[in-house]
Amino acid sequence: MEYALDRFEREIHAAISSTGQVPEPFIELATPKPNIPADLAFPVFRVAKEQGTAPPQLAQELAATVRFGSDSLIGRIASAGPFLNFSVDNGRLATVVLREVEQLGPSYGHDDIGYEQTMLVEYSSPNMARRMHVGHIRSTIIGQSLFNIMAALGYRTLSDNHIGDWGKNFGVLITAIEHEGRPEGEGETALAALEQLYAKYNALTEQDPAIDQEARDWSLRLEQGDTDARELWRWIVQMTLSYTQPLYDRLGVRFDTTHGESFFEDKMEPVLKQAIEQRVAYRDEKGAVVVELAEHPTFLLQRSDGGTLYHTRDAATIAFREQEYHPVKIIYVVDARQDLHFRQVFALMQTLGYVQNTELVHVSFGMVIDSSGQPLAARRGNMVYLQTLLNEAQSRARTVVEKTSPEFPDEEKADIAEAVGVGSVIYNDLYQDPKRNITLDWDRMLSLEGNSAPYIQYMHARCRSILRKSLGDKSHVSADTDQELRRVFPDYDPTLLSHTAEIEVVKQIAKLPKATREAGVRYAPFVVANWCYDTARALSTFYQECPVLKAETPELRTARLHLVAATAQALKNGLALLGIRAPERM
Questions:
Q1: How far is CA 284 from CA 281, 295, 367, in A?
Q2: Helix (H, G, I), strand (E, B) or coil at 305
Q3: Averaged over 526-541, what is the pLDDT?
């Protein structure tokens, strides 16, 4: 799909190519340095070297030779040393960009590069019998944003919550319940009790060989279909899922499938058999299935007692996904500590020939730390559970809303506080490279200034306020404001938007499609987050320097109103890619 800046680049390529002096492979455009008054540059070093010409001379010759049409987005060409610099025609750019936003609306910034290709994203993947805490939130938030971005790029995108509902940890839990009884209650209370039981008996497995063997026996009995083991297992899984769903709802997280490791119970044997037949794995003297791959540490695919492991289940998962969905890519959003595990599993499945046409990607991320730089952990006493985190964020946001907009109805205040509070948690994770650790800093997260969700949400709400006032309605919130604006002010001249602050906003809006693509290629939601922040800042400067409702002429007022409407739509679209709501009022 071609947007305004794509067209600008295409026209530059065509203009340079048409001179006959530069072969197409040598045309590589670059972003000029900040002090250069241009939008794109063509460094001529390579082609000058090929031709034996001095780069500044070639740049001057090209500047005198390049031609472009009267309706081109190219406005000006100039040479500067070894660079040929291109500037966009601001009026034509504003005309094209505002038309694109008005035509595409919520789809502005989306693309079709993934058309008819399936992509699967696995994220969140909490362990059963545990409350979700801030350690789980990173996979959940990053994964949902990547899902949104890939869907916006046109992929037939599937999301899977690959829950941890199998393995020895359930053997430990069942052993604990057999010894001490099933915890009373449901939801968070019962899960907290199960966490304590698990911690106690997991420690006992390291101290008491009899307890360790009992846990292993229960784990194996569960896999073999033991009635008592399965009944306790179902209770634990269903209770945990019932607890997590409201948290997912608050975060705007959704899944196409929730396939636990148990789903692949009957799908592991073919992978084991094939690994042995192809001599990628072998059975040792105790009966365990061992995998030895070049450049990877040895690992087990099956225990000596016949029990399965994470490697077994993840290998079977890949085989199933390949056969069921035929994806071009499977993305795993899992913390960095699992890097070796995924390298081993990916190498195994590639060796077995399962993923010849499928790319396997591990998107890793760092830890969540407190304001003193300490990792959050229950044993340190600084663990923050997800439900507590979201409630605290909503409460703090409500305090901000009460100060800034005390006249709003209580129901609207509550809705805004939820959108701002949850948005601040999401943005705090996504605005930086996922590989970095993130810090829970409430003051920064909820600030109405600086790089935060509330600041960006507030700039969007300010746009909507201007539009409502222009239509004579200072209080009513309507989703049809944009349509009403175009009905009341159907004709306007975008070329009137010539102020530096106006053009900067137009250029920022034009960059959203590229930001979406880059975020998809790099698996980096922070690219979109940075675009949102830069756009909000550009909007703030425009707001300060260019009166909208009190513009110098009615024609300029109308043009600026359409710019405000386009900015609001673009900001809303960018926030949506991150999974953040954009309130109409704040």
A1: 10, 21, 37
A2: coil
A3: 98
Q: What are the residue ranges of helices labelled H in 181-226?
A: 187-207, 209-223
Residues 46-74 pLDDT 10s: 999 999 999 999 999 999 999 998 899 99
CA distances (Å), origin 66, targets 63, 84, 236, 584 = 6, 10, 70, 47
Overall pTM surpassing 0.70 (yes/no): yes
pLDDT in tens, 348-361: 999 999 998 999 99
**Host domain of residue 67:** 4-88
Closest CA to 564 of 581, 579, 582, 547: 547
Same domain, 195 and 133: yes
Q: Are residues 279 and 328 in the same domain?
A: yes
Coil, helix or strand for 329?
strand
Residue by residue, DSSP assigns 158-193 as: EEE---B--SHHHHHHHHHHHHH-PPSSSHHHHHHH
Amino acid at the residue 268: M
540-545 LR contacts (CB < 8 Å, sep 24+): 540/459, 541/501, 541/504, 542/499, 542/501, 542/502, 542/504, 542/505, 543/462, 544/501, 545/499, 545/501
Q: Does residue 169 sit in the same domain as residue 68?
A: no
CATH of the domain at 348: 3.40.50.620
Hey, is 470 helix, strand or coil?
helix
* Both structure tokens of 479: 């989703």
The pLDDT tens digits of the residues spanning 157-200 come to 999 999 988 878 899 999 999 999 998 878 888 999 998 999 89
| Together in a domain, 79 and 147 | no
Residue ending a domain, among 348, 368, 388, is 368
CA distance 563 to 95: 10
How many structural domains are present in the chain? Answer: 2
Residues 6+ apart with CB under 8 A from 53: none
